[in-house]
Amino acid sequence: MISVLVKKGHELHVAGKPSQEIETLKKPDSVALLPEKIPFIKPRLKIKVGDRVKIGSTVFEDKRNPDIKFVSPGGGEITDIHFGPRRIIKKIVVKLDREEAFEDFSALDETEIEIVEKFELIKAIMSAGLWPLFRQLPFRNIADPNVTPPAIIVSLNSIEPFQPSPAVYLTEKAQLFDFGITILKRLSDTVIVSSSAKHFADLDTLSGYVTHLCKGPYPADDPGVLVYHTKTDPAQNTSWFIDGQDVLLLASFLKTGKYPIERTISVGGVLAPEKKHFRTRAGVPLRHLTQRHPIDEKTVRYIVGGILSGYADTGDSYAGFYETSLLMIPRGAEKEFFGFIRPGFNKPSRSRAFLSYFNPSDLPMDATYHGEERACINCGYCTDVCPVDILPQFTYKSILADEIEEALAHGLLDCVECGLCSYVCPSKIELFDVLKTTKMAYYLEQL
Amino acid sequence: MKLLGKFFDTQRKQFSEGGKLAALYPFFEALETLFFIPGTVTQKGPHIRDNLDLKRLMSFVILSLLPPLLFGIYNTGYQSNLASGLTPKFADAFIKGLTIVLPVILVSYGVGLFWEILFASIRKHYISEGFLVTGLLFPLTLPPTIPLWQVAMGISFGVVIGKEVFGGTGRNFLNPALTGRAFLFFAYPANMTGETVWTFVSGMKTASVDVVSGATPLAIAGIKGASDLVESSLAEAGFTYLKLFWGNYPGTIGGTSTLMCLIGAIFLIVTGIASYRIMLGGVLGVLAVAYPGYVLSLFKGNPAAPMLSLHPFYHLVLGGFAFGITYMATDPVSAPGMNTAKWIYGFAIGALTVLMRIFNPAFPEGIMLVILFMNLFSPLLDHYEIQARLKKRVPNV
Asked: In order of start, what are the domains of chain A with their CATH numbers?
């Protein structure tokens, strides 16, 4: 096992951690697909409102490569296709039947997987709409099935607050996980399983699979950070990565020949009524995760995904394809009187300018800026936290000056989209947003 | 507090788009955010943000300036009362100091703020908190006898030419407070240099002394002592090491006391607001240049440059070095942003300051110009460090 030490980053101490407890939820009334949240694809619908679908029926495909399909996570009737501005498809809702039907795919067992042709295997995964689980660095787009990746990285967990714990979702799934790793080994010669040192002990019997141990604060265990700190050759920049939980999906699909619909979702944040893990369906309504409790919609910010890297949504939305956590934190639109001079024992900050520096407990955080946007004063806090040694304060200035070559030389594409630069900025500049949108624009230009 | 909140809410209409005073919105915003941290909610990107904002950062710099400021007020009053033949008791001296220093600070803030609001209103950007620091740093570097109209001239030059013409805070490459001071230094040398400007003497007619000769320690150290040791000539003039460290001698309003600057520096370093690299680099720079010269002069004796024989530790307490390296050199905008570059920048400031003192007796106090000089080099230092770092990266394009 290789230890990877990442010095830069920042450990967030946010209150509202989900417990290790897991509860299996009842079936929801409906599930949905959110094409808008899948980066870069151009969806082409294969169904229309009123159509009947089975679990695993193709709902839409990517126009750029029609073999990349997205399938229905539920069986029933398509009741709503919601379009946003410029006809972007926001969500496709499937109202579930009492008894859902499955599409049949061919299953492969342990011996077959060793002998099956690689392209057959890829075809099987693609036909069931599971190919998008593989994503490719540095743009984090869906992996290109026509190339052999330098490595596939399985990131077992995320030290970003409130992500599902592998100790929970891997319980009693050791065999399935083993099968999943076997599948990955057919796709690439190098399969890396990374875990953060913090959660390594929780892995128990599965710890034998871990090849890379990431030591350091958030986001030390991000696949991009791992690649940055281990790469010796530019070819490694295009490694693929897959989430630990998604390896289970892949394995369960090939074993049973049925589209896997189970997901473990963690619910956290101070306003979450029940802070724990839920075993539920893919594409579950967010409301379903908080159903037993009334929520004051005005005061709560729903975040799907990580507290730094996730996206904000409303309570009546659905879980995304990649995201496996729901956070509920206070919006907190309160003004604070003479806030800038208070001692701040309860105000979390990376700097030492608040007494919270001496407060070891997890503190509640809300979604306010805690200040106003100002000009960059070159304080260099963003550089201090960047895990991949980008110089955000210089890089973002070169982006604003349209010096894209310079930004690339600074390592723009190494950016792991962790959001820490924006988090620490005292001038409240949207560094993360500037870097991310530039990166996305660069990807689109290259097509 | 609630009342105040309501007041701002009712007045917002006047200042927002279409209101009568819409042009002055930046002023309204600055005033409101002084009292209230606004509850603006994140729209994109990371959903939570660090509590540190620029207002707190800058108010901590102001907090760190309180020791030199308060001591400066006392010392100005004390020296003035001493020279004027009045009682130098603490309370009297402090009140006297207030009457001298407060108008200078008020003019500096008032005139500077006028320019800030003017530029912010026309450019439609916010008033940066950085000015609150500039507006206080500037008067502390001035002699107490400075005419108020010159204070107004200096801060105007500093804010407009030193900062606003380049686009405002964050885009200036020179320290605005020092730019203002440099302007006064060259435009009105009679009020900025010499032996009579350092003590504010009141009631000249009744006082027993008609001329107050107050050569600065640096002037004494630089000119005298061709035969004697500089240390003894300093001591003869009453400047023992301890006195220089404490700072109770005539000089600029806030820059005399090394002790107070040290307290401020420790506060800034502990809270992580200012770069310890620049400050320590500066101290190292001073010692690295002063020590070899000192050792050399011990062997050679009677050197051509008398300052060489001064013990290097004296350089740390003499003149404005302590104030300059603590508060002026650490201005993040005009200093380099890279860590190694910060060490070099600080080191060069310390080294050049001492070189100037030793080899240029006509111009003993060089810290101001040295910092401005190094400000010019900080983009270059940054550039070379970034280039060196980029070479180490495995390319990703």
From this structure: 2-14+107-256 (3.40.50), 369-446 (no CATH)
